[in-house]
């Protein structure tokens, strides 16, 4: 099942009212807004997301993130209304890239003003649901070893995780998506 077939209710359970945030699959038309989102992050947030100081996404990077095939590569965005009009801004982004047979690497960023409100968790749960539909058995993530919030977010999924220090200040986390067997 492709992501575009997801029901709004499954991803947007609390997307009602002013200031609500909704989650949806990324679209090619999101390129400019995705560039704006990353440019608006603090230098520290961009460093923890990309492991380097950067001004944001290039046009080529934005194009790559926004042109997923929805079967092997996927992305989700969190959108918030920007006032009384119907205009929405990206306030979070999750991408999933192939990482071997039955595996995808996951990366996430949430705007500082929207952190600690469950948006990262909702993005990650949308990614987990997509990965399971695509018969993936594992998600992987590489992060700065000192990035405690992302470590907590991944461990807080309630799924079996393994973390290992990869060196150079980077940790790698593996999340098992296989259904849990019931002990007899």
SSE order, one letter for each helix or strand = HEHHHEEEHEHEE
Estimated share of beta-strand residues: 25-35%
Q: How confident is the prediction overall: mean pLDDT?
A: 86
Counted beta strands: 7
Radius of gyration: 16 Å
Distance between the termini: 32 Å
Q: Looking across the biggest beta sheet, what order are the strands in? A: 1-2-3-4-5-7-6
User: So, the CATH homologous superfamily?
Assistant: Gcn5-related N-acetyltransferase (GNAT)
Which structural class do the helices and strands define?
alpha+beta
Helix count from the secondary structure assignment: 6
Helical amount among residues, as a percent range?
25-40%
Biggest pleated sheet? 7 strands, mixed
Number of domains: 1
Low-confidence stretches: 1-18
Q: Would you give the CATH topology? A: Aminopeptidase
Q: Based on the structure given, which CATH architecture is correct?
A: 3-Layer(aba) Sandwich
* Inertia-based shape: globular
CATH class: Alpha Beta
Task: Set out the fold topology.
Elements: H1 8-11, E1 21-25, H2 31-40, H3 43-50, H4 59-66, E2 74-81, E3 88-98, E4 103-110, H5 119-133, E5 138-144, H6 148-155, E6 161-167, E7 170-176
Parallel strand pairs: 4-5
Antiparallel strand pairs: 1-2, 2-3, 3-4, 5-7, 6-7
Helix pairs in contact: 2-4
């Amino acid at each position: 099942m492709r992501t575009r077939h997801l029901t709004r209710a499954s991803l947007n359970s609390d997307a009602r009212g002013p200031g609500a945030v909704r989650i949806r699959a990324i679209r090619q038309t999101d390129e400019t807004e995705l560039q704006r989102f990353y440019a608006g992050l603090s230098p520290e947030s961009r460093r923890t997301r990309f492991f380097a100081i950067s001004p944001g996404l290039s046009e080529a990077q934005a194009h790559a993130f926004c042109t997923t095939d929805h079967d092997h590569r996927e992305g989700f965005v969190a959108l918030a209304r920007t006032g009384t009009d119907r205009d929405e801004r990206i306030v979070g982004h999750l991408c999933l890239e192939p990482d071997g047979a039955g595996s995808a690497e996951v990366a996430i960023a949430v705007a500082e003003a929207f952190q600690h409100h469950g948006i990262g968790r909702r993005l990650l749960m949308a990614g987990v649901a997509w990965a399971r539909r695509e018969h993936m058995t594992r998600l992987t993530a590489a992060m700065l070893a000192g990035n405690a919030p992302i470590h907590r977010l991944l461990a807080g999924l309630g799924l079996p995780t393994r973390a290992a220090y990869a060196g150079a200040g980077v940790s790698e986390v593996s999340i098992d998506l296989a259904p849990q067997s019931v002990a007899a």
